[in-house]
Amino acid sequence: MTELHLALALFLLLTLGAGLWRVRRGPTAADRMLSAQLFGTTATAVLLLLAEALVLPALRDVALVLAVLAVIAVIAFTASVKTATPDREGRDDR
């Protein structure tokens, strides 16, 4: 079972390569933010797999903190986009 966990962690790390490509190439800020969310989610999954494979329960705590930080980053991005774009009538919400 340990080999399966490590193989899955390696596969998830390889998928991060596709996310890096999207961050670099992404035409909009939303594409880049979704890629950053992918990093947070994938890194959380990798840490959970490594916690099981290596029997290191502390990695579960790190994964939880990383998941919370990813959510906070998305909330901050959404709030900054909302305040930066005017509403439909051309007024600014600030």
Overview of the structural elements:
The protein is mostly helical and 94 residues long. Helices cover 82% and strands 0% of the residues. α2 packs antiparallel against α3. It is elongated. The model has no long low-confidence stretch (mean pLDDT 84).
Task: Look at the helices and sheets and give the structural class.
Answer: mainly alpha
Largest sheet: none
State the total count of DSSP E strands: 0
User: Could you spell the SSE succession in H and E letters?
Assistant: HHH
Strand percent estimate: under 5%
Helix content: over 70%
A few lines on this structure:
The chain has about 90 residues and is mainly alpha-helical.
Keywords:
elongated, mainly alpha, 82% helix
Write the layout of secondary structure elements.
Elements: H1 2-25, H2 29-54, H3 58-84
Helix pairs in contact: 1-2, 2-3
